[in-house]
Design a protein that fits this description.
Blueprint (H helix, E strand, L loop, with lengths): L32 H7 L20 H14 L15 H13 L2 H5 L14 E11 L10 E2 L7 E10 L4 E8 L8 H7 L16 E4 L6 H9 L3 E4 L11 H14 L13 H16 L3
């Protein structure tokens, strides 16, 4: 048995004997029929040529599972196990690049999962950026010398969540970018909130930020979007109460970095890493 499968053993209702029930926990990269019915219409259709068709295209569902396998485990593309049936690592890499260039990965991962109800207290919580090293060639897109890591080249994740910690939007910048520079882009990237009849909600009532966002310029920009900024003032004592609400952002970052492919930026292409980031936001939001 695969050691990664969970084994549950318990007693029957009478408490007289061991049931010895063995339940295999589904792998996080497995896509069931219900989820695939949502994803498949979003992917581009590729018609096979009638003349000189060549080798048959590997099924999109298996390739998508191979991409999720790399995202979860962090394995190199060329080391993707062939016995899983997901195709070669290069096939998965090319398919991810194809879908990313077509804008399909961002479409599949946009917004909270279906059925997510609106919150009674709609509010957004931008999280401070999380730096990650980039051992690739220096000078690649969206990289920079980190001021807190001896000038090493790296990138940075920026995230905005709702009041319960569901990721709504994420961006990728160089490791030398200030967190506050991504406040407005993140607010503008928030998708419509679905769940009830009527016009979908686009803007929250309030946005909560820590002291790193304490700039009058950005307060005015947030007000211009019709959102109330609730930002901690610099120089004030700790204990304003924002920490009791902003901890969900830190938890969301922890969930995202459970995906081993996001801990270090191995991709030279920034759009490929952003595709992984979008998929991770979608998967963590759906509880996967």
């Amino acid at each position: 048995m695969d050691p990664r499968e969970m084994i549950f053993e318990g007693l029957d209702h009478s408490g007289t004997g061991d049931l010895g029930v063995r339940v295999a926990r589904p792998k996080p990269w497995e896509v069931d029929d219900e989820l695939w019915a949502v994803i498949e219409p979003l992917l581009p259709k590729v018609e096979r040529r009638i003349r000189h068709p060549g080798r048959k295209r590997h099924p999109d569902r298996l390739v998508f599972q191979g991409i999720l396998f790399v995202l979860h485990t962090g394995v190199a593309w060329e080391h993707l196990p062939q016995e899983l049936g997901f195709g070669s690592g290069m096939t998965c890499w090319r398919r991810l690049a194809e879908w990313t260039e077509a804008g399909r990965v961002a479409t599949t991962a946009r917004g909270p999962p279906r059925g997510t109800p609106r919150r009674k207290r709609p509010g957004l919580l931008p999280g401070g950026g999380r730096r990650l090293p980039h051992p690739g060639v220096k000078g690649e897109a969206k990289t920079g010398r980190s001021p807190v890591d001896r000038g090493r080249t790296g990138s940075k994740h920026h995230l905005i969540t709702d009041a319960t910690g569901i990721p709504l939007a994420a961006t990728l910048t160089g490791g030398n970018r200030n967190d506050v520079t991504q406040l407005i882009p993140l607010l503008q990237a928030v998708p419509h909130v679905r769940g009830k009849r009527g016009r979908p909600r686009r803007r929250p009532d309030v946005v909560l930020d820590d002291r790193g966002y304490d700039h009058d310029k950005y307060r005015r920009l947030v007000w211009d979007l019709g959102v109330k900024p609730q930002i901690a003032r610099r120089g004030t004592e700790h204990g304003s109460g924002l920490g009791t609400q902003r901890w969900v952002v830190e938890r969301a970052f922890a969930h995202l970095h459970w995906f081993r492919r996001l801990r270090i930026r191995w991709e030279i292409r920034d759009d490929s890493h952003e595709a992984f980031l979008s998929l991770a936001c979608c998967t963590s939001a759906g509880g996967g």
